[in-house]
Amino acid sequence: MDDASLEDLLQRFGFSDKEVDTYLKILALGEAKASTIADDAGVSKRYVYSIAETLEDRGFVEVNDHAVPTTIRANQPEDVVEALSGDLQEMQPALESRFSRTAPRSESFEVVKSRVTVLKRVAELVDRAEVEVTLAIPYRLLDEVADELRAAVDRGVLVVLIVTDVDPATELELDGLASVARAWEQPMPTMLTVDQQAGIVAPGEMLSRSDSTAQAIVFAQAQLGPVIVGSFLGNYLPMAAEVYTADPTGLPATFEDFRHAVLEATLHLRANDEVRARVTGRSVSDDLDVAVLEGQVVEVRQGLLEPATNDFPVENTLFVETDEGTFSVGGQGAFVEDFEADAVELLPSE
């Protein structure tokens, strides 16, 4: 094995470039004073002492601080390898245990029979969200996933929340847990979608009765996600009363999730802010063959905020006025709009 390969292997065990170089100098010298090692490695004597402590903790060297001056001796390579092998073998059960708890599931569906597991799966999935979460959950159980929801909002995920089994007129603790939240007195299935790729559907009785024999389905199937989102937005969201809306995001801001861009544009327009949009995507028709559409946002159609302005539940549209005219923009898969967006940057008007 050449020096470069040996250095690469040592770096895999967490050594920095300087640590590798210093350790190899110690190996070559066998045993030496810190000043000698520092001169050979081109580092300070203080740095050698610092590294020597780390190397000694790992079993790579022995520091003889009883001698004057202090010397540093490389341990036998077979002893070092034996210690590393022991550490790896000791690590294996812990790695296997963690892998079984958190590894992504390759199955498209999982049947869940307990409320505890449903809430655990909700937390796990929300924690993995990158762009969008839709969630309906009984208000009394919201605390079980509050940390994950708050973290998702903090990292810029659109979170649309319905809390159920609660009077919308009561004081609800929802600040920071959603981009927009609604409340409904009636029970409904617990429903979750994450990035329209995975989610959960659980019968209402499963989370309300300890003796329920109902079962939940956890799914990881891109074809099913949009169907659940459509049901959430079309059948349940209009039945609930809006109880919380986050403040508009500061501009400029870029959104990969088109629904999020529409929500933020709506919030700014309702605050009488003038907003421009730079949309990256493609023309739906051959008449508008451009890769970027830029102009003033003059109208939105959406159903996340009351009053709804869309014509059908999943309609989310920006109308952008450009020098060539006003064009409608939809999200990925758009077919009734003029332009299909991959990403939208919202900017304050100059």
Descriptors for this entry?
350 residues; alpha+beta; Arc Repressor Mutant, subunit A; Endonuclease, Chain A; SH3 type barrels; 8-stranded mixed sheet; 5-stranded mixed beta barrel; 17 strands; elongated
Shape, per Cα inertia axes: elongated
Strand proportion: 25-35%
Write down the domain tally: 3
SSE arrangement, N to C: HHEHHEEHEHEHEEEEHEHEEHEEEEE
Can you give a write-up of this model?
There is one protein chain. This protein is of the alpha+beta class. The chain folds into three domains: 3-101, Arc Repressor Mutant, subunit A (Orthogonal Bundle), CATH 1.10.10.10; 109-245, Endonuclease, Chain A, CATH 3.30.870; 253-348, SH3 type barrels (Roll). It has helices spanning 3-12, 17-29, 34-41, 45-57, 77-102, 115-128, 146-154, 204-208, 225-236, 258-270, and strands spanning 31-33, 61-64, 71-74, 109-112, 132-138, 158-164, 180-184, 190-194, 198-202, 216-220, 241-245, 253-255, 275-283, 292-301, 317-322, 325-330, 339-348. The strands form three sheets. Strands 4-10-9-8-5-6-7-11 form an eight-stranded mixed beta sheet, with helices on both faces. It has a five-stranded mixed barrel with strand order 13-14-15-16-17. A three-stranded antiparallel beta sheet has the order 1-3-2.
Summarize the structure.
With 350 residues, the chain is α+β, with helices and mostly antiparallel strands. The protein has 10 helices and 17 strands. The strands form 3 sheets. An 8-stranded mixed β-sheet has the order 4-10-9-8-5-6-7-11, sandwiched between helices.
